[in-house]
Amino acid sequence: MKTIRSMLFALIAIVLIASVVGCQPKQASGPVTIRVLTMEQAGPTVDEMNAIVAEFNEANPDIKVEIEYVAYDALHDKITTAMASNPPAYDVFLADDIWYAEFAKSGYVLDGTDRVSKETHDKIFPAAWDITTVNSKVYGMPWLLDEKYFFYNEDLLQQAGFEAPPATWEELLAQSKVLKEKGIVEYPMVWSWGQYEAAICDWVILLYGNGGSLVDDKGAPAFNNEIGVKTLNWMIQTIDDGYTNPASISYVEEDVRNVFSQGKAAYAVNWTYMYDLVNFNKDESQVTGKIKMALMPAFEGSGVESSSINGSMGFSVAATSPSADAAWKYVEFLTSESIQNKYSAHLLPMWQTSFEGENLTKLEGYTPANAVTVPMFNMQFPFAHVRPKVPYYPEASKALQLALQEALTKQKTPEQALNDAAAKWVDLAK
Amino acid sequence: MQRKRTLAQQDMLVGFALILPSFLIILGISLQPILTTLYLSLFEVPRGINLQQTFVGLGNYISLLSEPIFWATIGRTLYFTVISVGIELVLGLAIAQLIHAHPPGWQFLRTSLIIPWAVPTIVNGTMWRWIYNADYGALNGLLLQLGLIDKYIPWLTRPDIAMNLVILADIWHSVPFIALILQAALATLPADLEEAASVDGATALQYFWLIRLPLLRPAILVALIIRTVEAFRAFDIIYVITNGGPANGTVTISFLTYLEMFSFGHAGRGSALSFLISIFTLALAFIYIRMLYRPEEKL
Questions:
Q1: DSSP bridge pairs for A32
Q2: B167: which residues sit within 8 A by CB, 6+ positions away?
Q3: Closest partner residue to A73 among B48, B136, B243, by Cβ?
Q4: Cα angle A418, A149, A355; round to 5
Q5: ω into residue B116 within 30 of 0, thus cis?
Q6: Among B130, B170, B143, residue whose Cα is nearest residue B252
Q7: pLDDT tens digits, residue range A19-55?
Q8: Quick one: A35 exposed, middle or buried, by C-beta within 10 A (0-12, 13-18, 19+)?
Q9: Cα separations (Å) of B1 from B7, B8, B9?
Q10: CB contact under 8 A, A247 and B18
Q11: Does B246 sit within 8 Å of A107, measured CB to CB?
Q12: Which of A73, A102, A259 sits opposite B135 (nearest CB)?
């Protein structure tokens, strides 16, 4: 009996000691591990990202990169949660353009201003630097210089007797009417108007294409005016008329891609990555070879030629990372010109030099998609608009998403919904 | 000379020593976070590293309780909880009785019941999101082939329908849990009661209503408390199927907490919301116990 009891006590003592010892930080031995958080959506595929990691690990035996993927809509919250611990759960993460103001203010992202050489700085598009720069400090390397494009199914348009894509949204409706009447497609358009950031992106395209804007020169909300209401009414009307797929109210970009890939829509708006997958990937698409891209339409009489949404992202190093140097090394590798050229099928390089002279011809030849997406980028990017860079962006965006949803589901009038969202923006800015 | 401890004292000492590790673990993973949350809920906490917190007392609670969005959210959460748990209980009881009657193949039925319950909620949510998809979902395909609809319906775009569809997905996932608990309880009921009742001429309905149901009450209580607390805190299934849309139509209290805490970075308000959830669930559990628990019964 006594032996059993002392054995029990000994056991407990061992467990307690072991648990305390287990808390001691382990001394790093072998290669430094860099943990990377990125997304699996609208950009390079997982296979491509893993291939880049493998290349880096091989070239740098003293560093070991481990990479994790989440959906875009989970990325922001995963980063902010990871940054609550010290050391943070990730050393490197992908951050959206619209989060940099918040992350810089929170002290989450490493100031890399001095790590970027003048030569590197000059070879990258100024618009790309704008992504990761807050108050003239560079908080990461730009990675994805993307915008939404206008896609159309040439085969369906030809069946309806149209040789050219629409140049304005009015022309698009006229074509849609014929497509619908001839029974070629039930809903000519599919959008990502679900209660997600995706809806803001589509709304920016339409709003700016109508001569409107999200904020004025002073940063105050400017979308709750006649143009904003007119644009939102247009969206509602296209659903009522059966030109826009009514499920758009619950869709994100991947739903748009799925519907468009099945030939169930004649027009779609999406990021660069969709072109390669829809037009060349027979496993993913039933309409390969039939998809074209064109300049994004605008509204007649708005004085606007075209408009799109700038959806760029950057890779940053966590400010509290214990291995910041190794982490930055990986970010530099990932965003280097050669890697970006090599993996340009779903993401175009943000290196200005890749688009110049002989390099441009080369870039267009790297993948079958590039021959189309590279010239499209040059055409469309001057019309891309950025969303406000404010620390409270996630909350402001949610308020605007709600307004769009309330109007689209007819719970509020467009005027009321947009005024409520604008009031929230003013409130947040205080 | 050392004072001898009595046998009872020695046993108690060993008992304390044995529960000490688990007590420490519970303290670390349960009590400490609860206290931290309570503490945070009294502050305005800016998101970031080394930023100053401001003490606001009950300010977070007061501002939340005075916002219409909070009460709208509570309303939706109660709707979700009452409908899903209510239907789950009725269906679960029916399935439990069916299994208890041992029809041919009942063992297969009982085993296959575990499958929906074993599927992780995230996977379950993703599956239902696909089923409900307006353009390539199984639900539209099925209804169209049965001739019940003549064209595809965008299910998740209407706030009133969307919430009920999320509830349906939750019911599919959770009915097996209640069915299995009640089936296990039924198996322990003495068979002679049924014989005695039939000798006395009780109808099947009388037997069910007057004998079986009262005997099942403790098991029903356990199942209800667990499921109600879970349903009240439902988050993942909503996050996956609708992300709170359309037009906030499926934003429940846990989803609001998630938005405040993680998306908007209001750790103080988020903590206050977490605490309010705890208070609500505690109140619900208390009501159940008052309604269903009889002291003479053993749970």
A1: A63
A2: B80, B83, B84, B87
A3: B243
A4: 130
A5: no
A6: B170
A7: 544 444 444 567 899 999 999 876 788 999 999 999 9
A8: buried
A9: 18, 20, 18
A10: no
A11: no
A12: A259
Single-letter residue type at B34: I
The band of A11, judged by pLDDT with boundaries at 50, 70 and 90, is low
Contacts of A54 (CB under 8 A, 6+ apart): none
Task: Quote the CA–CA distance of B240 and A268 in Å, as a whole number.
Answer: 24
pLDDT, chain B, mean: 90
From residue B170, how far is each of A41, B92, B232, B241 by CA, in Å? 27, 13, 12, 11
Nearest-CA distance A366 → chain B (Å): 34
Across the interface, do B49 and A196 touch by the CB < 8 Å criterion? no
Instruction: Report ipTM (2 d.p.).
Output: 0.85
Distance CA B289, CA B8 (A): 34
Shortest CA distance from B18: residue in chain A: A12
Identity at A258, one-letter amino acid code: N
How far is it, in rounded angstroms, from Cα A280 to Cα A224?
A: 41
Contact list, B159 vs chain A (CB under 8 Å): 409, 411
How many C-beta atoms lie closer than 10 Å to residue A126's C-beta? 10
| A231, amino acid identity | T
B197, B83 Cβ separation under 8 angstroms = no
Helix, strand or coil for residue A79? helix
Cβ contact, residue pair B47, A102, below 8 Å: yes
Give per-residue pLDDT as tens, A52-91: 999 999 999 999 999 999 988 899 999 999 998 889 999 9
Give a yes or no: residue B173 inside a domain.
yes
Q: How far is B258 from chain A (nearest CA, A)?
A: 9
| Count of structural domains within chain B | 1
Residue range(s) defining the domain that contains residue B118: 61-292
| CB–CB contact A8 B134 (8 Å) | no
Closest chain B residue to A79, measured at CA:
B262
Are the Cβ atoms of A402 and B248 closer than 8 angstroms? Answer: yes
As a dihedral over the C-alpha atoms of residue B187, residue B193, residue B198, residue B199, rounded to 10 degrees, the angle is 150
- Torsion angle, CA of B222/B224/B226/B230, rounded to 10 degrees? 180
Structural domain includes residue A350: yes
CATH of the domain at B133: 1.10.3720.10
The boundaries of the domain holding residue A158 are 149-309+392-429
* Portion 156-215 of B in contact with A at CB < 8 A: 156-159, 162
Give the total number of structural domains in chain A.
2
Under DSSP, the state recorded for A109 is B
Whether B252 and B84 have beta carbons less than 8 Å apart is answered as no
How many residue pairs bridge chain A and chain B with CB atoms within 8 Å of each other?
Answer: 111
Task: Kindly state whether residue A255 falls inside one of the protein's structural domains.
Answer: yes
Q: Is B63 a residue whose pLDDT tops 60?
A: yes
Residue A373 included in any domain: yes
Is the pTM higher than 0.80? The answer reads yes
CB spacing of A76 vs B263 below 8 angstroms: yes
